[in-house]
Please model this.
Amino acid sequence: MSGTAEMTDERCLSDLGGVGDVLRSLGTGSLMLVADRVAFQASGARDRLAPLLRDIPVVMFEDFDPNPKLDQLLVGLARYRSRPTDAVLAVGGGTAIDLAKLIAWSAPQSADVRELVSGRARTDRPALPLLAVPTTAGTGSEATQFAVLYVDGIKCSIDSPELLPRACVLDSALTATLPPSITAHTGLDALCQGIESLWSVAATDRSVGYAVEAIGLAWHHLEAAVRCPDSASRAAMCRASHLAGRAINLTRTTAPHAISYAFTSDHGVPHGQAVALTLGPLLVHNAGVTAADNQDPRGVESVRARIAMILDLLDCADAEQASREIDNFVRRLGCETRLSGWGISDRETIERIAGKVNPQRLGNNPRRVTHEQIVDLLESIV
Model:
């Protein structure tokens, strides 16, 4: 990684109506619009953007499904190259924003995108300016310099300061029509990101500040946003998602995310639910850190202090209680908390999932996690 770029409050708009001003400030004469087809219409973004983009030639790209895949990126790049534009606008959830990031980053380059994604080639030109407009509250992708891409079913994470959007719009009105299920699993992603960032070996004073606020907002407002949404709960979750994104942009994610990807790619578990499945058990695991298995260079006491902060935010006396409360919280959101609910129960499948875990993300976890411990943990939540 060549450095970390950060989103700032000054580059975050609170109203979609400001998009026109941002595009004008970028000198945008033409625009590629990467949009989740359903969310673009249902959120009201299509109608609200129409007058703002009336005088700008727009190339649309809506041909993709959840979870960004290489073949979808290739289609998007072909669409761009058929009519090159000055800038890219992303409207949607994490998939739309990540694909838009990757198009804006790779389209100007002389190297093939497959070589760029694999790390075998480097960029030689600046990325296109990107403006991100999330219509969900959970991924925080508008605040990060990385993007997820599945290549042949394997999750790849591309990390570059050039992937950070130039600006973003956090307009909670765009989330008002989200179904409860999507509100739940995207919101769980924000909660998990906040907790993982707080206990990460890369946590800093700034990331801790972002994470603490994100956890508090998600813990106290997500259930309302799912069960009886109002403008206050929606706005709180948009803020939680964005702050969690800023936090993991500094620290990256840890064991719950590392374990989750095979749940999503192989078993269709929505990402936020996939991460939440192991959050409680891994909180218990990390709370038991010792000098022998600690991975944080600041030492065991630093890890324990941040675990204590998490327990305080969840209003729990110990990690075991917190794990139970997280389980109950996820159930109240209408989400599955057992692997068997997703058809995962046999030892062979569990071993295969454990074997797919990215060791780099495990290195960010404060306590070492072995293959055998992952298998035992997964068997405990069947």
Notes: The chain has a mean pLDDT of 97. The chain has 16 helices and eight strands.
